[in-house]
Fold this sequence. Notes:
Low-confidence stretches of chain B: none
Distance between the termini of chain B: 36 Å
Helix content of chain B: over 70%
Strand content of chain B: under 5%
Oligomer: heterodimer
Distance between the termini of chain A: 43 Å
Order of helices and strands of chain B: EHHHHHHHHHHHH
Order of helices and strands of chain A: EHEEHEEHHHEHEHEEHEEEEEEEEEEE
Strand order of the largest sheet of chain A: 5-6-7-3-8-9
Number of helices of chain B: 12
Strand content of chain A: 25-35%
Largest sheet of chain B: none
Largest sheet of chain A: 6 strands, mixed
Number of helices of chain A: 8
Structural class of chain A: alpha/beta
Mean pLDDT of chain B: 85
Shape of chain B: globular
Amino acid sequence: MSDVVIRAENLGKKYVIGHQAETGRYVALRDVLMQNARGLWYKTRDLALGKPIIQGDTQEEIWALRDVSFEIRRGEAVGIIGRNGAGKSTLLKILSRITEPSAGRVTIKGRVASLLEVGTGFHPELTGRENIYLNGAILGMTRQEVKRKFDEIVAFAEVEKFLDTPVKRYSSGMYVRLAFAVAAHLEPEILLVDEVLAVGDAQFQKKCLGKMGDVAREGRTVLFVSHNMEAIRRLCPRAMLIADGHILLDGSSEALVSAYLSGARERKPGIQAYDDSSAPGDNCVRLRAIRLVNEAGDVATIFRINESVSVEIQFTVLRPISNFHTHIRVITRDEIIVFGSGSWDDEPMENYLRLPGRYTARCAIPGNLLNRGRYYLTVTGTIPNARYIFVEENVLDWEIVEVGGAGGIIGPRPGIIRPLIKWGILSSDGNQDEIKEGVR
Amino acid sequence: MQEQVLILEPGRTEKNYWMDLWRFRELFLILAWRDLAVRYKQTIIGVLWALLRPFLTMVVFTVIFGRVAKLPSEGDAPYALMVFAAMLPWTLFATSLSDASNSLIGNANLISKVYFPRLIVPTATIVTALVDFLIGVVILVGLMGFYHYPPSPSIVLLPAFILLALLASLGPSLWITALNVKYRDFRYVIPFLVTFGLYISPVGFSSSVIPEQWRLLYSLNPMVGVIAGFRWCILGGNSSIYWPGFALSLVVVAFFLGLGVSQFRKMEKTFADLI
């Protein structure tokens, strides 16, 4: 079962774009006329022959993919990760034959189905029933296949009652369910999936992921492009990280996902400062800066799991204001709010007046609380139960990294938080053990 | 099960393209059916339109060319019938050309998201044009009844000429379709081409009004041969085919078909990048 079904050798895809070159200081009208006359003739000829006409004097080649080589064996589920524009979708488009490579070659054994979009070719005027046949044919199913699976598809989509209604009258949820149901019942040997799971509500996404998992378990080969790192980690044992058209890393998805995440972190420093013109707030309070500070007192974006993360919020009070508070929210990559906390925890909620001047609100998220991973910070300034003065959503983000397995257990722990809890094991026979401290 | 091995390389003309075309025949049928269903679902006018358009044009041409300009008909065939016999293939040609040329743009979401031989899309739209054509035949039968004009035995050859009309439409349609993807403003040229073609083709008048010495040159227009064929089938002995011209028309049809298919195939691979 370990034979290679997809082999890519030095694969490349090139796009040509034109630039207007800088012209010299003197331009003779004669030259321009001649050039244009010649150009017109060549352009007309190219037009008739269907050659591309590219605007601009100089042409630049952009390699969306370059020297990409890999092998995928039968039954493997491989995740493809990378930033937008890294070449992931181009790769899938080449493999699914939508576009042709400019260099290299790919050898594919077996029937390929690509799912680059849910509901490709759905026509709003046609009924659900008609669209199932239409979409099935577009995805490469025969009429017989669709007929055989028709009831299954309808049941999965839960649209029995609306089969003969034009899909333009469907709710968007029904539409997506029906579209995915058709795709989910494809039975190719190789399945290429692009970001299609980014549709529908959370529950539906779960259903889709479940179905994807089934496909992978049935021994079919799956290539899966996604920004959802959790989905990649769960579905695909192997992953490839693409950056700037090259395969940067190829290996276990566990290792790659963290590499990707740590690569992504350099983008933002752990500080967000505002100048006078852009400072959020009103005529009473202006936000000045937000900082993430580690235990050494430095601005940081990477924190050890046992280290506290201090959030500093600098603001200026312009006019005396009563009952002004700052509040933070810590949010995971999957947009789950881990917790929220406000400065009223420290100061009483009763009315008091804050006088004009500069202030820094500071709170420390303790170490050994958040699990490893990426977190996002939302900062608000508010007069509780009255109004918001500023709301800065996802203004900063940071990464919590593991530093050696605590208590001898290496590897990730499940859950959003990872508290270090004291354990005691007592002997029932009376011989008291000493309580063991959690080892760091 | 025999496992198919697929090799993708730049500039590789796939050996299995025509096989693929056969494998995707169901998609072809379904796309053609979709175009038809949508067209006739949206409006009752859809059917009515297919009937009215050629009929009204025929009426206008009969009045202008037959009554006002007093151009001769072919033999003693009624002028209206002669015009309508040409109107049928011409409408087929014109509808194919304009529908096909917009088909790839109209199906851009398909082109950029799934693979199939792209030839299917414009070809499927021609099926819609063919259905309109068949509806037009109903009017023809009505007209023949109205004029008490008995069908001649040569009418059995009509299917062959319908096929010729389809092939004559397919070639230029494919070429223009491909060009239309590359140069989006090309679609503004198409209505002009169609209107222009209506007047330079012998639709409103008989080919016999063309002076003898220009007949061969005139036959470079592939529709001249097709229309001559239709008239010969429908009007019988009253119409005669100018054989050298007809042969030339056949050659031109074949040339355009070859050009259309080869240009389409050449540009096909880049459609997804352009659309």
